[in-house]
Amino acid sequence: MSIKQWITRGLLALILLIVLYQLWIFLHICWWVNHNPSTSAFMEDQLAVLQENNPDAELRHKWVAYQQISINLKRAVVASEDAKFVDHEGFDWEGIQKAYEKNLKKGKIVAGGSTISQQLAKNLFLSTKRTPWRKLEEAAITLMLENMLSKRRILEIYLNVIEWGNGVFGAEAAARHYYKTSAAGLSSAQASKLAAMIPNPRYYDAHQSARGLSRKTRIIQSRMRFAEVP
Asked: 144 and 115 in one domain?
């Protein structure tokens, strides 16, 4: 067999693997229309890290239905992470442009333009390792999420799987960890602080009195009344 034939077969095998992986993701998303994810890629990565030091370590996580999550937290998260969530189709192009311009001005990455749908795509399927094709995969998964799930379902899954501290995942675990209450009982101030923690949850778990966190909490709380949630 010639080198050209080997290359051709290799490329075909690679394409087949990519197609099968996309199908695997698609079938998972179809299942999640009516069933809840039991874990996510981020949760599995963090559990592995925790168990390196303590083999018996477990994540704090409990799924709660959308209606059992405070409207305050829904508004705070949308106000903080994705103000156009109910209107866009997965990507906030204006937000991406603003983030790019801000990062260019600062000479480093200080802002992100990821929507809630994009963040959910990363949390569910992608590892924390940065690879050249990660953004392409994230975009493909985001499109699947937006086309297969309602906005309400996307936000419900997001609020139940995102990281909120060292080994803390989901709104219910976060509410109990920080405030000894349920996700349904979160006040406006509590919800806005939790939303402010999302970009760097493990750091803020250990530095809950950080000045930057307090400032961001106040900004989010002032914007909550304008947030539209599904």
From this structure: yes
**68 token code pair:** 């059992």
Q: What is the rounded distance in angstroms from the CA atom of residue 6 to the CA atom of residue 162? A: 43
**88 and 12 within one domain:** no
Closest CA to 127 of 40, 10, 204, 30: 40
pLDDT tens for 7-29 read 878 888 888 899 899 999 999 99
For the chain, the average pLDDT equals: 90
pLDDT 10s digits, 153-184: 999 999 999 999 999 999 999 999 999 999 99
Q: Could you tell me whether strands 168-169 and 60-61 are parallel, antiparallel, or unpaired per DSSP bridges? A: parallel
Query: What pTM value is reported for the model?
Result: 0.90
CB contact at 8 A, 81 and 198: yes
Q: What is the number of structural domains in the chain?
A: 2
Phi (first) and psi of residue 61, to 5 degrees: -160, 130
Domain residues for 160? 32-226
How many other C-beta atoms can be found within 10 angstroms of the C-beta atom of residue 191? 29
Q: In what order do the strands lie in the sheet with 163-165?
A: 60-61, 168-169, 163-165
Radius of gyration of the chain (CA): 19
